[in-house]
Amino acid sequence: MEYLLMIYADPNQKDDPQLLEGYGAFTKEVGERGVLRGGNRLHRAPEAKTVRVRNGQTVTTDGPYSETKEQIGGYYLAGLPGLRRGGRVRR
Questions:
Q1: Which of 6, 29, 30, 88 lies 20 to 30 Å from 38 when distance is taken between CA atoms?
Q2: Does residue 73 lie in a domain region?
Q3: Of residues 69, 3, 83, 72, the one with CA closest to residue 35
Q4: Rounded CA gap, 37 and 13, in Å?
């Protein structure tokens, strides 16, 4: 089963080197375990574009879709065994 793990970030906060180091360690571990299917860091909200298709017309606007205090800063796609009750991953 594949899972999307989203990384949320405060758009007003500077990058924390210790936090980025933790993401690097996590990336290395899931890669070594063979469960990492993909992932990427995303651009900050001011660089975002919103794409909508309505009535066959594609419209692109600057900025994120909605105003939020947090934004998605990146994601991992992991292939893992299914979850049991209680939310624990089976090994």
A1: 88
A2: yes
A3: 3
A4: 28
Share the mean pLDDT of the chain.
Answer: 82
| Entry pTM | 0.65
When comparing pLDDT for 34 and 14, which is higher? 34
CATH at residue 43:
3.30.70.1060
Calpha distance 59→53 (Å, rounded): 6
Give domain status of residue 88, yes or no. no
Give the rounded percent of residues in the chain with a pLDDT score beyond 90.
Answer: 37
Identify the DSSP state of 87: S
CA-derived radius of gyration, the chain: 17
Overall domain count for the chain: 1
Q: What amino acid occupies position 76?
A: Y
Provide the token pair at 56: 């066959």
